[in-house]
Amino acid sequence: MSAMVDITFKLNGINRKTRVSATMSALDMVRDVLGLTGTKYGCGEGECGACTISVDGITLNSCLMFAADCDGRDVMTIEGLAADRKGEALRDSFVEHGAVQCGFCTPGFVMQAHHVLEKNPDASEAEIQRGIEGNLCRCTGYRKIVDAIAGVAAAAK
Ligand code: FES
Ligand code: FES
Fold first, then answer.
1. Separation of 40 CA from ligand 1 center, angstroms?
2. Alpha helices in 76-139 (DSSP H)
3. Which of 12, 33, 56, 124 lies 20 to 30 angstroms, CA to CA, from 80?
4. Residue 47 CA to ligand 2 centre (angstroms)
5. Rounded to two decimals, what is the model's pTM?
6. Is 139's C-beta closer than 6 angstroms to any atom of ligand 2?
7. Which DSSP letter does residue 36 get?
8. What is the SS3 assignment for 77?
9. What single-letter DSSP state applies at residue 15?
10. pLDDT in tens, 80-135
11. 51 ligand 1 Cβ < 6 A
12. Which domains does the chain have, with CATH numbers?
């Protein structure tokens, strides 16, 4: 059995303390320890982006990060975008454009799209495509997802 580690970090703007196994992934911590199930387990190998979270303002695959490495960091999950204006605009735009089918990939796409538009609010279509290239969707064919993000970018122009 692996050692347990106490960590303190900011989660969606709130200071949290928790105890995790030294080998637990950040994904398992947010889902199974903290009960935030919006972040999804897709591949577990860093290939699909379903598990995208933001750590200190950088998006990453939480399946590849140790929970213990969240210590002292500023972590944001999809739940943290609930009251965020751009997060809300993205969610609405995904629905309006039919960019959600099974929805399994959607939290990861919204997290990544939010990151792209935070850095570049009126990103071009090419910039959006590059920005989401680490996220996979098995349902939509991507066109509607790009259109949904571009719709929010266009509103920022
Ligand atoms: S579950 Fe993390 S990249 Fe697929
Ligand atoms: S909507 Fe089903 S995987 Fe993207």
1. 8
2. 85-96, 106-119, 125-131
3. 124
4. 14
5. 0.97
6. yes
7. -
8. coil
9. E
10. 999 899 999 999 999 999 999 999 999 999 999 999 999 999 999 999 999 999 99
11. yes
12. 4-80 (3.10.20.30), 84-155 (1.10.150.120)
